Predict the structure.
Amino acid sequence: MSLFATFNSIAFVVIMMIGLYTLIARQNLVKKTLGLGLFQTGIFLMYITLGVRDGGSAPILQEGTDLAYSNPLPHVLILTAIVVSLSTMAVALALIIGVREEYGTIEADEIATIDRAEAKEDHEA
Amino acid sequence: MISPLLLAILIPAFGALLAWLLKPMRPLRNLFNLVIPAGLLAVVLSILPEALAGEEMTFTIGELGSGLSFALALTPLGMIYALVAASLWILNTIYSYGYMHGLYGIDFEGQERYWCAFAMAILSAMGIAFSANMLTLFLFYEVMTFSTWPLVTHTRKPEAKRSGRIYLGILVGSSTLFMLTATVLTWVWTGTLDFKDGGILNGSTTAGQAAVLILLFFFGTGKTAIFPLHQWLPNAMVAPTPVSALLHAVAVVKAGVFTVLKISTELVGTEVMRGSWGAEVVAWFAAGTILLTSIIALTRPELKARLAYSTIGQLNYIVLGAAVAFPMAIEGGALHIAMHAYGKITLFFAAGAIYVASHKTRVDQLDGIGRRMPWTMTAFMIGSLSTLGLPPMGGTWSKWLLCVGMIEAHQWAFLITLLLSTLLGLGYLLPIPVRAFFAKERADAGVKGHEDHGESPWACRIPLILSSLACLILFFWPGIYAQLAKMIEGSAS
Amino acid sequence: MKPDPSMLPVLIVLLPLVGGVLAPILGRGIFGWLLALITTGLTTFVCASQLLLIQAQNALTPGFSVSYPLGGWPAPHGIELKIDLLSALLATLVSGMGFMVTLFSRQGVDDEIPSDRRRFFWSLWLLAITGLLGILITGDAFNVYVLLEISSLTIYGLIAMGRQRTKQALTAALNYLVLGSVGASFILIAIGLLYAKTGTLNMADIHAKLLLAPVDATVLTARAFLLAGVGLKMALFPLHLWMPAAYSTAPSAVAALLAATATKVGIYMGMRFIFSVFAVPGDEMLSGGNVLIIGSCCGAAIFFGSLGAARQPSLSLLLAYSSVAQIGYIVVGMTVGHIDAMTGSILHMVFHALMKGGLFLCAGILIYRLGTTRLEDLAGLGQRMPWVSAAIVVGGLGMIGIPGTAGFVSKFYLLKGLILSGHPVLAGMVLLGSVLAAIYVWRFVEVAYLRPASDTPLRNGLPFEKFLPVLILLGASILLGIQPGVVVDLARDAAQQLMGVTP
């Protein structure tokens, strides 16, 4: 494995972990969503790293030359995954706007408190 | 031509449907409530000759793949149970009118639920009686449990709800945890679940496996009320009395003992039963239950509770017979299904009639009541004697055969148990009619507002007179039932 | 012109996809519903024909499956649709349930979704079905991920549309989104690792390459990620936390569709990867410790799911927790790797979809007429709505698995398989689950039949087209409880094909 790939492998694991940590530990819904995005970005990097070949260039076929080139398939896959990630982010942010409208806050713990209080009220009624 | 076996299930199903649909048309519904049981009895009687001739008759309801099916078949044992259930359904329906109308008025609450559940209980009784394999039996066994729950909780009071929970808890718990396990194990070990004379275990299971199956099956059949699964029965007494009569004399408890007899003769096989320590354990539990409940019955002042504990004892006679599994014991057990049914239903009818007329529920209030209710208390007398197995009542024969079976098996301890419980029975049952006729009525015995009462309504009285007559007749002409029981003995030996 | 059956596979995804794209344009007023109804109806027809074709072929050559190269590019380089018995069976189930729930939900959607959003609702609805069906029939691993995200994203949106009724739908959807995306990302990682190992994305090809190479750390890591991701998607205990809130706050139609199909597709993914991709003889994915771990998860699912159901304040939540338990049944059957258990598992997927779908439709009727499913407001339901109440009881009996209902048949096969494969403890858990199910079902029964009628006002009548699907689904669950032969044979063949057992 080349130095580049090793570095990349460490990097994507670190990025994924930072994302996952943010996702779990933050109460702010937007930050959670950003964590999710970071986590997915880590995965993209993993795919890209998979496609790398030592000394490979961009995968453009040229008449007569026989250059080593990177595997293009992971790039294509990751294009799709980026679109998916983007849509996920969009849906999440849309939901958070809705949450903000209904609850007046985007902190997960405050939302839980409101829900609990309402359930209790409901129970007593 | 629809198979009569299927018809025996479809008719009550139709009855249940009509009870629901004809809710707004009460007179028409009431008419059908009588016509449908009569139709069922006619169908059952129509296949009686085939049963007596030992002819085969089968019908497959549904296939489950891998050789499994829901199927019906005609057997002598099934015929006994079907005949008892079908004949007593009519009486119980008439009685229900007397009781429910007498207490709750002609348009009592939840009547469509009542009649519908009643018909469903009879449907499942027919299904159990004619089941051709363990799977079918289990199907209808569970249908019966669930369909009788609305009857137990009919009053919808908190104590009815509590009893309903105990009822379902014990019956569903035991059947799901043990009976279903045993059924699956039987299937895994023998590859079939079809009932067969002589059993299906023979040769394909080890002695240990057979014992495990026996224990699982007998303690999975909570409806036999064998200790420690007996609590549901006294608790179910919160139900209206016709329901108690149905539950504790005809359908539910007899479904339990029928199941164990069926398992003993046609699934495990009497030969395996006789040689297994599992059956031994069951027999001791049954004997213990008999003595225990007889003693408890002595201490219960409420009439219905006393009858309930008496029922538990009587049921375990049959369980004992099934567990000992000698031909005479099996024959006696099978006959006891019928004999006990007529005796016990008479007692319950009488208890309900007393309640309708006088609102009395306790034994000590009944002194001298015989002069006010001569019909009812005479019937009670006959019923008591029959239940205890004393001549000249039908119950004599089954008890006699059970005792002979115990001698045949050299089970002296069990023989003594049977005799002892009869003695105890004399103590808790017979004083009631005797004191009713010969003791002086206590001044403070009357229930407020019902001090001056006469006999119960005719709709209550006629069924109990008929059922007590049946007890008498069955002594002199045990006829069909004895023949059918004899056939079972033939195949068991 | 004679129709060409070889085109059927692509129609399965094409029809709802086109419908979903057309819905925002054409779907104003009643047309959205009509479009969805026609689309799901046609799709069901296509799936059923495909199922019958495969079954007929399968009788001649066991193990037969249909392959359709998308765009004419042959596998393993092109993307392939690959339909075997299990795929076809579940595709029929998913599209059929989609049709039933669509039929059910016209008034419900009118009631719960604002009129300017309805056409988007139907668009999301059809796209969700597209995604679910696509997962079932694709033969390409990366495609599974993409289609999973298509179905998930649309489902998040559909759940969030429950905000008209309760604002908690938003948080439930967001929660599901976060957990679901993490789960899907795990699956994406697993697929990436598999690609790194084998250099291909075609599932059959991955399997072939895995057979040649020794199982190393890459494959083991892929397995672990896959299991975690699929576990989240199928809501296997303890990864079920997103589910109850999502099911109980989503619009009633969405809840029914999800309960009947979404988790089943998650389980299908698990089956497909475990038995068609990772199945290396001598080093099966499900052996030893893995069986122990997943088995305990299933046992815990059955136990805690049922207990949880018995403590819920509303019928929707009760049903959702019951699903947690029932998923335990399904997964336990596939875990032990016995043909009878697998048959039971597949049967339970089908039967549970029918019964739980029917039950959630009943809950939908309650929401439509009462505006709530809180148990307290359901007091005396037996008198107020005798038919709906009776239907819930019938479905509940199926959840318990009493004989005569479809739930019993699958449980019976499951038990046999568990005993024969030497897992008596798990068999005991399945039995215990039935008793616990009786407890939560009876909570409803006692409320509905033993309490005096509550005075919550009835807002609407009972439209026949709302009750018809309930009648069909629960009627089918009874019919299949008594005469399940055909489905049992199908499930057994599917199980044999999946596990590579020749009969």
